[in-house]
Amino acid sequence: MSKNILVTGGTKGIGRAIIERFAFEGFDIFTCSRNEKDLSDLERDFYTKFPNQQITVRKVDMSIKEEVMAFADEVKKFAIPDVLVNNAGIFLPGSIHSEPEGNFELMMQTNLYSAYYLTRSFTAEMIKRNSGYIFSIGSIAGLTAYANGGSYAISKWAMLGFTKCLRQELKDSNIKVTSVLPGATFTASWEGVDIPRERFMKVEDVAESVWGAYNLSPYSVVEEIVIRPQLGDL
Asked: Which family is this protein grouped under (predicted)?
């Protein structure tokens, strides 16, 4: 029986790269996005590359709790994920003291609350099964203060704390938990900036790091993956 992976926000960037890396190894996929066309494009491309595997896509706004819970219930009709990757996120630049009203709520709901609700939806079954792997895609903005980071940075610091707590709670149930903290990675968030592409990390490198952590023996876990551009942070 094929293993499966659930990746939120899987149509682009790091999420898309993780999906393709695990699909290459034979995993079936569950994923979601707010954009119906992006989901259709992903599904079509997936079956072209992996015709003998399954992908389940759903339109979900991860900032809305009810949609997150409905997505979890839909996935449960098929399986409890072997691997859960909390990847969905949004970045709106700004300073805490001057960013637009509502930025804080939107980024906390999308970047943190969604991971909290979705993870809680599957942990009881993972504990009962005595297996599972949970990855949280954070950011180096959750380790270091940056100007213009604002509420995004707050959400990523909180995400790291959430993941550390989860690791401690689930370690005796044979469930591994890893925080992934990438630096500047060439994704849609950076489109249009006047910075050479070679200053960015590749999404494939982040996906490869996730795959490598997943493949350790049962006796070891990578608690945090900090990965930065070779020439340093932007």
From this structure: Belongs to the short-chain dehydrogenases/reductases (SDR) family.
Range(s) of the domain holding residue 19: 4-227
Domain presence at residue 234: no
Q: pTM above 0.85?
A: yes
Task: Please provide residue 5's backbone torsions phi and psi, each rounded to the nearest 5 degrees.
Answer: -135, 135
Domain count, the chain: 1
- 187-232 per-position pLDDT tens digit: 766 666 778 778 888 999 999 999 999 999 999 999 999 999 998 8
Q: What does the DSSP assignment read for the chain?
A: ---EEEEES-SSHHHHHHHHHHHHTT-EEEEEES-HHHHHHHHHHHHHH-TTS-EEEEE--TTSHHHHHHHHHHHHTT---SEEEE---------TTTSPTTHHHHHHIIIIIHHHHHHHHHHHHHHHHT-EEEEEE--GGGTS--TT-HHHHHHHHHHHHHHHHHHHHHGGGTEEEEEEEE-SB-SGGGTT-SS-GGGSBPHHHHHHHHHHHHTS-TT----EEEE--TT---
For residue 33, the domain's CATH number is 3.40.50.720
**Distances from the Cα of 2 to the Cα of 45, 56, 193, angstroms:** 20, 14, 41
Percent of the chain with pLDDT over 70: 97
Asked if residue 176 belongs to a domain, the reply is yes
Burial of 138 per CB tally in 10 Å (0-12, 13-18, 19+)? buried
